């Protein structure tokens, strides 16, 4: 007999007690007709769409605090609460070091393979949880970098510092107190790379069959796009490879990777904007496979930060030593 997946189950209390609760908000603009099961399958692809239909039917996915059918459409601003049963979180690199701590403001050197905040399969194995346990205090996350990116991440113990830091970021176009962010990346297809170059333009989330949040760079300001600017300096060359330093003037999602891609430069290990395109990302998510010889993560490191302390106005300058795996990779390509 075929299971009625769209029938809501009423007796879910026992299941709730054995599950881990995750919450998310739909922040992006989405199609008005997208159903809950499709949205969950696209965003959290560790479960198939059919599996999400089962979970919604069991009452394990709540939309704005209510049990709904999986055919219900969702919109920007909706809050989703879902329960995961028996899922083991992936292993992460917990080798976090604190490179600045004045009693309130904290800057950590995050290793690669560690999410900053709960997302997808990760809930407890995050930088936020690890630093909270290390310092035995509540932590406010003040900036983020990708799970695969290593380097500087800013946090605070106090809410006043967090509020003023975020306000400083929001006003950076209109203030002399700017946050200077510098990254180091290893790129390929770089035999003709320039010594210094600037990439600027308008980034737009255009989508791709293998990655729905794929970004493209445009010269013109078109509807929905956001201005972006990065200054690059080539610091080492090794045949087809180069090591570059990237100074961010704006902070858009995937900015450095998209800007390199627009110049036909590919960040080593990039599963979305790399030389093989986002099919690599799809294969990695769906089948847990990557091409032979592919570097295990995107070769990007948040190297340095420079800004005025949001409370004391003291100039803060920090550098996070380059991650060991990147040092070893650079040594390897140097000897090719």
TrEMBL record:
<dbReference type="Pfam" id="PF00849">
    <property type="entry name" value="PseudoU_synth_2"/>
</dbReference>
<dbReference type="InterPro" id="IPR002942">
    <property type="entry name" value="S4_RNA-bd"/>
</dbReference>
<dbReference type="Pfam" id="PF01479">
    <property type="entry name" value="S4"/>
</dbReference>
<keyword id="KW-0413">Isomerase</keyword>
<keyword id="KW-0694">RNA-binding</keyword>
<dbReference type="InterPro" id="IPR006145">
    <property type="entry name" value="PsdUridine_synth_RsuA/RluA"/>
</dbReference>
<dbReference type="GO" id="GO:0016853">
    <property type="term" value="F:isomerase activity"/>
</dbReference>
<dbReference type="InterPro" id="IPR036986">
    <property type="entry name" value="S4_RNA-bd_sf"/>
</dbReference>
<protein>
    <submittedName>
        <fullName>RluA family pseudouridine synthase</fullName>
        <ecNumber>5.4.99.-</ecNumber>
    </submittedName>
</protein>
<dbReference type="InterPro" id="IPR050188">
    <property type="entry name" value="RluA_PseudoU_synthase"/>
</dbReference>
<dbReference type="InterPro" id="IPR020103">
    <property type="entry name" value="PsdUridine_synth_cat_dom_sf"/>
</dbReference>
<feature type="domain" description="RNA-binding S4">
    <location>
        <begin position="34"/>
        <end position="97"/>
    </location>
</feature>
<dbReference type="InterPro" id="IPR006224">
    <property type="entry name" value="PsdUridine_synth_RluA-like_CS"/>
</dbReference>
<comment type="similarity">
    <text>Belongs to the pseudouridine synthase RluA family.</text>
</comment>
């Amino acid at each position: 007999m075929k299971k009625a997946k769209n029938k809501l189950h009423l007796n879910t209390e026992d299941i709730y007690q054995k599950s881990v609760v995750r919450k998310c908000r739909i922040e992006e603009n989405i199609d008005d007709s997208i159903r809950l099961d499709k949205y969950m399958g696209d965003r959290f692809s560790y479960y198939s769409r059919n599996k999400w239909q089962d979970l919604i039917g069991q009452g394990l996915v709540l939309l704005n605090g209510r049990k709904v059918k999986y055919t219900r459409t969702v919109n920007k601003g909706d809050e989703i609460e879902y329960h995961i049963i028996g899922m083991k979180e992936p292993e992460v690199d917990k080798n976090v070091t604190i490179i600045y701590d004045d009693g309130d403001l904290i800057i950590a050197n995050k290793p690669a393979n560690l999410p900053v905040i709960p997302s997808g399969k990760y809930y407890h194995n995050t930088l936020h949880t690890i630093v909270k346990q290390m310092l035995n205090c509540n932590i406010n996350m003040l900036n983020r970098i990708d799970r695969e990116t290593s380097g500087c991440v800013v946090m605070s113990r106090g809410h006043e510092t967090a509020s003023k830091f975020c306000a400083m970021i929001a006003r950076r176009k209109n203030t002399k107190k700017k946050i200077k962010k510098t990254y180091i990346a290893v790129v390929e297809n770089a035999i003709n790379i320039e010594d210094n170059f600037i990439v600027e333009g308008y980034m737009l989330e255009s989508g791709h069959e293998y990655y729905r949040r794929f970004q493209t760079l445009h010269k013109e300001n078109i509807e929905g796009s956001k201005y972006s600017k990065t200054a690059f300096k080539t610091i080492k060359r090794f045949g087809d490879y180069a090591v570059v330093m990237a100074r961010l003037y704006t902070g858009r999602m995937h900015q450095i990777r998209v800007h390199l891609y627009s110049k036909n430069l590919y960040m080593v290990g990039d599963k979305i904007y790399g030389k093989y395109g986002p099919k690599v990302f799809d294969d990695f998510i769906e089948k847990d496979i990557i091409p032979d010889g592919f570097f295990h993560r995107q070769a990007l490191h948040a190297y340095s930060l420079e800004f005025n302390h949001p409370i004391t106005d003291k100039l803060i300058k920090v550098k996070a030593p380059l991650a060991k795996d990147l040092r070893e990779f650079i040594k390897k390509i140097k000897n090719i």
